[in-house]
Structure formats: structure tokens, C-alpha cells
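quick one before i forget lol
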Amino acid sequence: MGPGQLLVAIELAEIDPPHETKVTLIVSGLLISGFITSENEYLMHLANARYLDDPLEKDQDLSDPIFIHLRDAKCYQPHENPALQRSAGYLRLPLTAVTGFLFGNELG
């Protein structure tokens, strides 16, 4: 499974109607599990979203996502019991931080 499949899952979350995919990401030794969602849904759930709009870089292609957005995101540290993790929320990560991923993996 290559990074291209993760990009396809991000693109599917951005279409209408959106298709959200369950994913577990590996980021700096942490496991982060949730559903890939659209940037618009992520921004809808931020109280101050209008202040977070970053200007686009001149050479940025809008079809190439820079971030991955998750809903119901849960973070797990090594040796932590996933069943004890109860908090979930929205998360925005730069794609460059993701070192690995699994689709449809349910922790706990």
C-alpha cells in the first residue's frame, strides 16, 4: 500500500457526497486513528476557523492536498491500552508528518 492510496482516500473525502475512510496513521511513533474527512468539515468544527485561513503558496496545486483531516481522532502512545482512550475530536496534520498508515484498522 503506497502513499498514493492515502491521497485517493483524502480526495474521496472532498467529493460530494463525501466518502469518509477509517484510517490509522503513524506519526512520530504515535498511532492516530479516525475517519478521513474534508477540510470544509474540519473547518466547520472550529470556532475560529475564519482566522486560520493560510494564504496559498504561489506554486501550490490545489489538487495536491497538504493536510489530512480526521474526525473522531484518537491518539495512542506506545504501550498504551487503546480501550482506555475515550476522547476523540478533529485533527489536522501535514501529510509530510505521516510515516505510515492502515485502512479500516480498529484499535481497541
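fyi The mean pLDDT is 80.
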